[in-house]
Predict the structure of ROK family protein.
Amino acid sequence: MKTTRADPQPADFTDVRATNLAVVLRHLRANGPSSRASIAASTGLNKATVSSLAGALIEQRLLRETGLSGNRIGRPGTALTLDGSAYAAIGLQIAADRLTALAVDFAGDQLLLWHRAFDGGPATTGPGRAVSAVAALAQRAATRVRQQGRQVLGLTVAVPGLVDGGGTVRLSPPLGWADVDLRALLSGSLRQPGLDVSVANHAGLAAVAELRHGGHPTLDLTYVTGAAGIEAGIVVDGRPLHGSRGFTGQIGRFSLGPAGALTLADLAGIEPLVRRALPGFGPEPVTDLTPAVDHLAALARAGDAGALSALHDTGCHLGQGLALLANLVNPEVIVLGDHYAALAEWLVPAAAAELARNTLAPSGGGARLVASTLGLHAAALGGAVSHLDRVDTGVLPTNT
Amino acid sequence: MKTTRADPQPADFTDVRATNLAVVLRHLRANGPSSRASIAASTGLNKATVSSLAGALIEQRLLRETGLSGNRIGRPGTALTLDGSAYAAIGLQIAADRLTALAVDFAGDQLLLWHRAFDGGPATTGPGRAVSAVAALAQRAATRVRQQGRQVLGLTVAVPGLVDGGGTVRLSPPLGWADVDLRALLSGSLRQPGLDVSVANHAGLAAVAELRHGGHPTLDLTYVTGAAGIEAGIVVDGRPLHGSRGFTGQIGRFSLGPAGALTLADLAGIEPLVRRALPGFGPEPVTDLTPAVDHLAALARAGDAGALSALHDTGCHLGQGLALLANLVNPEVIVLGDHYAALAEWLVPAAAAELARNTLAPSGGGARLVASTLGLHAAALGGAVSHLDRVDTGVLPTNT
């Protein structure tokens, strides 16, 4: 609970330095290799300051010099670029059917992407085995990037459901977990003192990845998960919306009918969709949705009337749910993620029409509905890049 | 549209100064009269810096010395306090049935609170007459505070409905307005060059007032209007949620039934409530809700079964709507405003039960449902204090 007004902290020269380090890092992150002179010209910092900041960042191995200047200001051959050789960050993603590990270097280049089959649905015997599997995968990923000579800036685990600010999974219906202190369990298993381990909601981390790598020209976007549940990751003015306890974005709980009626997750979820559109599923939960989604997409592409009708209905319900979201937080872009992305071609027309019809603001308040291009591991990517974001605020890593 | 990442601006000594001015102003705002020594001790600024900052603020007449030190650190008789004598800020509030003007001095003390009967509902002939009435009231309020020797820091008008970032009312169902550039019209009418005129959503401004004066120990609150419509003003981590175009908080549009069904405003609005509970209303809109709400409260207090039943039903629907909001933005406090506040005693039990029942997070994600104590002019107060907030960030007024 935050009980006091967010008073500003007194500022001193350390803050000026951190702010200006952030200016240089973000300029290079956004613009690619640039000369000191062009950084100075673009940011308003004077050249001596840029040189001093660059010197410190080179010494810390966050920047390096390169011959490839992206512009013509300054002498050729002296451009600066982000240095990927010294640091890495790791994201892990837990879903009911698989684990994903992803690592990026400080320059944002992907170092590894591993998937592991995983039976983590609610029918299993609790989180113990899952935590061990996650810890083992995290350990392997960390070992791999260390063998490459890189220091791990941090590791973030993405989980569907309610995750509090301390890294405890309070409730994850897709995993069947309640009150699992995943951050403490993982920190204990990893035995790497000083490693920054975080746990956060899947949708929120995917939204961070979309903000940074999704190619959307906006600071106000919402990412919608379409996996074993529907959740929204909401970014407002470039910052993830955490709420008072971290429990935001639970749009799957929206009920569009009278009390006790079906929820948005029932009406517009991926599993109900494939059950409606495809024959032959038993009563047990469908955890591995990918083959069913591929099959459904193939049917739709072939013009199958049943598939198209099921997709249209799901799109309508989804649009109604997204209208509630648009009425409340007014995003500029709504990104359909996970399995929705593969079906977006057929979902979006109906969803966009219902979205526009059900918002008070004209045209859905300007919200554009787009498909994610980041694949099924967007949350793992978001978990990894969140550690780069932290360095980019001017909080440089302490060498361990 | 915000199309670029919110890159930090380079920092220099001016920013350090502004940040530290903000630290001093907010310390005094939060803690009352304090000596220079106690400010230094509480904020971490050194005494020489505090003295220098205080000198500048006294010279600008934002602070004054007082004999009333609230603590025992430092010599008695040399405490600093906010100075209300030189500056004022004005908030205006437009509702379908009345205009409200409110002014506060820089110390936050109320200088005037005026109400004017106003026939501004959708049946009237458009915004022209309304704008003239608002401009006349604004002019009178500004003249009054100037006659008291105070410079006007700014004037903000609260309007129900969609207001964009430029001060245009895009759509206000309670007023029947569409695309009214109220900011330009008012700026033109007032003929006071340099006066900072803003227009913003009623609920958002009321939320700002609640954050500052509502007595809620939180940075994550949502204010819910219960007037001629239902809107939410959402404050996240101490900042109002504006979304991409300013069109947030339209919870009145939530539909809890199948497509085309009744909205939350139909089911839980104040006007539908008084119509259900009290006989004798004609088909025309009930604009002056206060007498009806008073009557309903009196009946409920006397145990009238029909009144209690109507309030219970409205409370249930309201709680279902607030659950959608709590699932999405996870506020710590939900403030029932306007006419809801007068009826909160009977609405809250049912609403709180439905809120808890319909959120994924236990206990509604921790959201507490409380009644506003700021009365029917919370939005006007929010409009006025928003200008004090700006000074408190260290952006000192330029003397005109």
Notes: The mean pLDDT of chain A is 89. Chain A touches chain B through 79 residues (CB under 8 Å). The longest strand of chain A covers residues 151-159. Residues 88 and 145 of chain A are 7 Å apart (CA to CA).
